Amino acid sequence: MVSLPRAGRMSLILLFILWNVMKVQAVSYRARPESMTVREGQTVTLRCAFIGLTSQSVVIWEGPPNFNVMSTDRRVDSLYKRHRITGNSGAGEYSMEIADVQVADEGGYRCSTLGLQEKAEMMLNVIVPIKKPPKIVVRDTSIFAGQSLTLSCRTAEGSPLPTLTWFNGTTQVKQSNKKLAEGVAMASLDLVLSELTRWDDGRNFSCMADQGYPQLAAATASSTILNVKYSPVVRIRSQSIQASEGETLDLSCDVDSNPQAAVSWRKLGGDIPANAENRGGTLRLLTLDRTAAGVYQCQANNGIAPSGVGSATLTVQYPPHITSNFNRKTSPFVGQEGFSLLCEAEGYPEPRVRWRRKGTKLYFGNPLQFSRIDYDMEGDYECVASNGQMRNAVRQIFLDVRGKPYINTVSLKVSVRSGDTARLVCEILSDPLPEETRWLRRGPGQQDKPVTASQRPGIREEETTSPRGVTNTLVISHVGRSDGGVYVCETTNTFGTFQREFHMDVKDTNTQSVVIASVTVIVLLILFATIFVCIAKRTGLSTGVNKSREKTTGSTLTASRALPPLPPYLDARSSPAMDPDCDMDGLELQDFNGTLKPRPPPRVDKQPYSIGLSYPSLMHPLPPYSTVERQRPDGEDNMLDSPYPEDPWETEVT
């Protein structure tokens, strides 16, 4: 072997060392360690791989605390029993596997070897999930409306400490930061409610703890429901109620309170009906009557002032009721002035009170007033009270007119033929009935002499009596001209005497014969003239006359079109005066200034008793009242209990 000089050997050694140094500096990371977050108890692998390692290269792992050396090459220090090096050394893989990761494993790690320009570091974060939800602490146990309240949310569990958040239902309210209490890590968050109301009762407040790693540790939450105590609040569903008599009614009272309130009812200014059923928030009134109307109060009390009060006003509708206690009969005197009848009634709605003559639809106001009493006002009158929705109330009174007699005969002039029988009728109204009735004949000098049967044969009196008076008839048979003149009917009762004159005119029989003959001649002349006109029309006499008239007027008048037909009442063919053979279906014509017009149908005389008056000679154009008004049937009086059918139109006199 050739030995090199010493200087040569040193050169070779230096070259060898330089080559190795250059070789070492060529090492680099193929897999750099990266920071990781794991959950406590899991197994984690911290990856680390190199390029350019040699058999002399040494890989070192350093870790917490303070980057202590944990392993050299593939050998792990005995202090780290849960740690080991994994991977293919020939491929430069030196990963650190940690089983059952603990919080103590959290920290910085470094994997390195000689020749690296920069040593890569990583952080291992160990998450310890919260085992229990955060705790909510309420500082005040008794909570009343109007007070403030503080809710505290706390937790000392978990790593890292969670972030706390308050929610009102699903709405976020406030968020906290971690706080330390006496060297112990603790998260705490307060929620302050400045002034509670009854609306806060039953509200759900929740506190959520979130560590920020939902894939490793789920968020947890605690909640509390507020129990806010407050005084009763009362609400009446309807403050104004109308009901009809006989109905069943429920008065409802809604109460909002905490704690629950006791509910009671009372009626202002009176007692609750004895048959009422108190069901707490509901008061049932059975079979209402008018006395149940009034103001009802619902009162709720739960021990927290003030008590709750609600009111409802009940009005009960009921049919009219006449309260006036007038007698069944009243007796005014003939000639009495300013007499009136007052009728009072109650009901709801307030009834309208009117008067009417029984059996009529003619209404008068209230009170019923008479300007002057006459016998024709005697009869039954009815007070009618109506309120438009229910049956009417009717009370009757009889107006019994008393006083001196009154002769009510309509015809005071009598015409009789000589030889016939004359009847002078004296109709007497009297209450009391006449004590004496006699006939007198008025002679010269206004001297009245009694007419008696002894004066001459054929004179007699006929008398009939009724509750209203007496009808006395003087009968004179075979009347002669000497029987004509003025007769006086005189009647007397307790209150006085009344007379009325009758004029009797006796006509001679011969004069009547002359009048009859004259009328007969005139009728015959009219009949002959009518027959002549008809014959002339049928034989053509009138045709020639018409043609001559046409020739005379034809030179000056030219008809451009046919004239319109005449109205039926002007058409000659329809005129009974021009053609008695034509039928006019009973149409009567009359002449108005040369023009024929249909005569109106015969007037049916109004029944003078249509308003219940019994004595037509004393009837006024209207009863002694001032105003007449027409009233439709849809007015207020539906006459449900009246025995008389309603007229489609009513006449009211006020």
Give a quick precis of the structure.
Its main location: membrane. By secondary structure, the chain is mainly beta.
Shape: rod-shaped
Strand order of the largest sheet: 29-36-35-32-33-49-48
Oligomer state equals: single chain
Strand content: 35-45%
Largest sheet: 7 strands, mixed
- The CATH class of the largest domain, by name, is Mainly Beta
CATH topology (fold) name of the largest domain? Immunoglobulin-like
Separate helix tally: 3
The residue ranges in which pLDDT falls below 50 over 5 or more consecutive positions are: 542-654
The pLDDT mean sits at 80
CATH superfamily of the largest domain: Immunoglobulins
Radius of gyration equals 65 Å
CA-CA gap between termini: 167 Å
Number of strands: 49
Helix content, binned percent: under 10%
Q: What is the CATH architecture term of the largest domain?
A: Sandwich
Classification by helices and strands: mainly beta
Number of domains: 5
